[in-house]
Amino acid sequence: MINAGIVGMGGWGRALVESVSGGSDAIRFIAGMTRTPSRAVDYAGKAGLRLYESLDDLLADDELDAVVLATPHSTHPGQILAAANAGKHVYCEKPFCLGAADAAEALQALTANGLKAAVGHDRRFYPNTVALKQAIDTGELGRMVQIEGNFSTNLAPAAGTWRDSREESPAGGMTSLGIHVVDAFIHLFGRISRVQAVSRRVALPFDIDDATIVTVEFEGGQLGYLGTVASTAPLWHLRAFGSGGWGEVVDHDRLTITKSRDQSETRTWENHGYPCLPSVAAALEAFARDCEGGAPFPITPDEILHGTAVLEAIVQSATSGDRVPVSKPIL
Predict the structure, then answer these.
(1) How much is the pTM?
(2) What is the rounded CA–CA span in Å between residue 167 and residue 178?
(3) Is 266 exposed, middle or buried (0-12, 13-18, 19+ CB in 10 A)?
(4) Quick one: pLDDT at residue 26?
(5) CB atoms within 10 A of CB 300
């Protein structure tokens, strides 16, 4: 069992706490920190969290083994370095960092201090994603050829929050939505070599893009394309095409495997609606087991760094319109 502190106590920070509040045997939250403590006093009391007014104060808590960051993206590099210097493991909500150089520095600092890093791509833990990954790895779908994905929702309610700035949300929904598709692509098809993106504002009432499309080339030769719309109804969708058929993930609880016109099977899982707290808990518990010397967190530091480099290339391409190679920083 590790003791964790939550940094950032907005809606998602609270969801992280609540995902393991039913009695996890791997991780528990005992402290929290937010930029506006007055808004979190009641919640901290109900959740049994010691409430701190600064990150330094929270990191000075000797009972904490780790921190979980649910904070603005641009703050992650400094917060991870501070946690590393304080001897705390770090689980960081996505994106880990906005730039590959910052991610490399942060990961190196954790490694140098014998600490673990994890990133909040909980969709790897969805039961339908797990089943699709198994179908691909066992060869059930043949040789993989192409993949498509879309993660969309309406970010208009984010007006007036940190998410409504281009600094925190470059290339529209990529940092809050599309980055999950990028990680799923890496998880299912491997490393990405080049990207090309188009991103523009169409309907949002504030100045970030809400229509973004990206074409992807993989090192293994496969192709992919993803979309993220930040001004529509929610959608999570992946479809992976192989020479023997295709598999389709929809939402958090459905998988269809189609091998021919008359050979198609759909599986569903109960109790996995948004925000799919069982999968959020599974990610946090995998992190906790890694911290205690158990199985490594399934997203390696190298994959965390690669995912950041892909995001950076997408943002560069959305700005320039060019086809951009993904950098290869080394840890």
Answers:
(1) 0.96
(2) 16
(3) exposed
(4) 98
(5) 12
- Rounded Cα distance between 234 and 173, Å, is 12
Compute the C-alpha angle 234/237/240, nearest 5°: 170
pLDDT tens-digit map of 45-59:
999 999 999 999 999
| Whole-number Å distance between alpha carbons of 307 and 278 | 24
DSSP letter at 105 equals H
Closest CA to 111 of 311, 294, 290, 295: 290
Average pLDDT in the 30-51 region? 95
Quick one: tokens of 238? 């992946």
| Residue 45 exposed, middle or buried by CB count within 10 Å (0-12, 13-18, 19+) | exposed
Q: Quick one: which of 241, 230, 139 has its CA closest to 185?
A: 241
Residue 307 in tokens:
């995912």
Write down the pLDDT at residue 22: 85
CA separation (Å) from 71 to 65, 146, 217, 271? 19, 34, 31, 28
- Residue ranges of E strands in 80-230: 89-92, 117-119, 144-154, 192-200, 211-218, 223-229
Cβ neighbours of 32 (radius 10 Å): 27
How long, in residues, is the chain?
331
Residue identified by tokens 């911290």 is 291
Domains of the chain: 2-120 (3.40.50.720), 123-325 (3.30.360.10)
Flag whether pLDDT at 271 surpasses 90.
no
Given pLDDT bands bounded at 50, 70 and 90, which one contains residue 23?
A: confident
Place of tokens 């504030």: 206
